[in-house]
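Possible regression after last week's pipeline update?

I re-ran a chain I had predicted before the update to compare outputs. Posting the input and the new output here so someone can diff against the archived version. Not blocking, just want to make sure nothing changed silently.
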Amino acid sequence: MKKCSLCGKLLGFNDFYRDSSYAANRDGHRASCKECCAAKVRARRERTNVLQRKRRAESSEETKARLRETSRIRQQNATQRLDPVARVARNLRMNLKKFGLSIEEYNARLEAQGGVCAICGDPPNGRRLGVDHDHACCPNQGSCGKCVRELLCMGCNTAIGLLREDPERAMAAARYLGKW
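New output (post-update):
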């Protein structure tokens, strides 16, 4: 026989859950009976359910607004993915943002260069001209905007990068090509 610590009833050991982790109870059973344990669990669940219902009611409008905004953004992104003109404009805008340029500034530079590469003088051939900048000023990807030089075709921009923007290397390469 054992006395329940909650209800105070004197009950048999079969009415208590076995639990050897309770060091204070050398008999290997919980201090409270099965009925009181079940009542504690039901009360805890009810408190939890009440709190959850309250939180859901409070956040319901916020959630609906957030879902509407997410849906609107997804719809907008889907439209841009389907529209190649919008996609190209968005990509150009994002790329120019790295260099501190707007589309208008880019177009003004392009017009000032006559719509051709500043080095080779070739037109872009279906691809836009890349923004060249001084990597010594801004070693990371992009630019502060102050070190933007001119617009170059992909081949010339890559060549400058491979020559590590070193004028002596470029002259050595020109001399080498001049030999042949």
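Follow-up from reviewer: compared with the archived run. Helices lie at 34-82, 84-97, 103-112, 154-162, 167-179. Marking as no regression found.
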